[in-house]
Design goal:
CATH topology: Rossmann fold
Order of helices and strands: HHEHEHEEEHEHEHEEHEHH
Distance between the termini: 23 Å
Shape: globular
Structural class: alpha/beta
CATH architecture: 3-Layer(aba) Sandwich
Strand content: 15-25%
Length: about 300
């Protein structure tokens, strides 16, 4: 994370007049991010690089598992164009704007939830970018990054144990490390993949790029690891093989395998989290316990 002196030095060398005081805004915002994130004990991003692998579902249920274990949890949904975390958690509401910043709505187990969804007038309202962003994908990308940076700077998380950030799906390879760069002392990323060879090929690229940018990796969750029969609960393979080969190649721990289950799909669609006794919930609980112990041992 650049210091205030670094930012000022960089901005002073830019060849344009800062009539809008952009320099001061960026420096102030960066300091505000440090202040907000300083109250969060551990920060984890959930990423993939491939859309449709169940990344948001994994973020939702992983956050639930930590909250059930008694941790104070926050979830930041930075998928600006297709936010879905609030629906999966059954959370409705708006930010409460105060002089100190924005207070996020709360969800199950007291979790704090922040999402672009809370700014939309209706559930089916799309995010529409106006002005020069309509003319250039470069401007659009800059606008998205600015909004995400404001999320980190303006939201009042308070003192919480874990903040999970659900990164955009299928994003360009540079977005995860850029977004992660806004988070001081990031603990690492949880990667989500399916056993599909096509998915693994894309996820592999995203891991390579993110690691090259200095982003630590905590491990991989294999989603859609077979499908559970709704009648007898027997697991039926959906793909040939699993993600063990990808984990071995990338030197990543395999955190757990989550099979496709109709009840999990229904729970996410209805915004009604699975009961703690459900087999899928227990798998996420095991992943959460292992992650918590690993981060504790790493800190010590």
């Amino acid at each position: 994370m650049p210091t205030e002196k670094d930012l000022k030095s960089i901005l002073e060398n830019l060849e344009y007049r800062d009539d809008a005081q952009v320099q001061k805004q960026i420096v102030d915002q960066s300091l505000q991010v440090k202040l907000r994130m300083g109250q969060v004990k551990r920060k984890i991003v959930v990423m993939s690089g491939k859309g449709g692998v169940g990344k948001s579902m994994t973020t939702t249920n992983l956050a639930l598992a930590f909250a059930r274990a008694g941790h104070k949890v926050g979830v930041l949904d930075v998928d600006l164009n297709g936010p879905c975390i609030p629906k999966m958690l059954g959370v409705r509401g708006k930010f409460e704007i105060t002089s100190e910043g924005a207070l996020p709505p709360t969800g199950p187990y007291g979790m704090k939830i922040a999402s672009m969804e809370f700014f939309l007038k209706q559930e089916d309202t799309p995010v529409q970018w106006k002005g020069p962003m309509e003319l250039s994908p470069v401007w659009l990308g800059l606008m998205e990054m600015n909004v995400i940076r404001e999320f980190f700077a303006d939201i009042i998380w308070g003192e919480i144990d874990y903040l999970f950030t659900d990164l955009p799906p299928g994003a360009a390879a540079d977005k995860p490390p850029v977004i992660a760069g806004y988070i001081p002392e990031l603990d690492g990323a949880v990667v989500v993949a399916t056993p599909s060879e096509v998915a693994k090929a894309v996820v592999r690229k995203s891991i390579h790029y993110s690691r090259g940018a200095g982003m630590p990796m905590l491990g991989l969750v294999e989603n859609m690891s077979g499908a559970l029969c709704p009648e007898c609960g027997t697991a039926v393979p959906l793909y040939e093989g699993g993600c063990e080969d990808l984990c071995e190649e990338m030197n990543l721990p395999l955190l757990g395998k989550i099979p496709f289950d109709r009840s999990l799909s229904h729970a996410c669609d209805q915004g009604q989290p699975l009961p703690e006794s459900h087999p899928i919930a227990k798998r996420f609980s095991k992943i959460a316990t292992d992650l918590h112990h690993f981060l504790d041992s790493k800190k010590n």
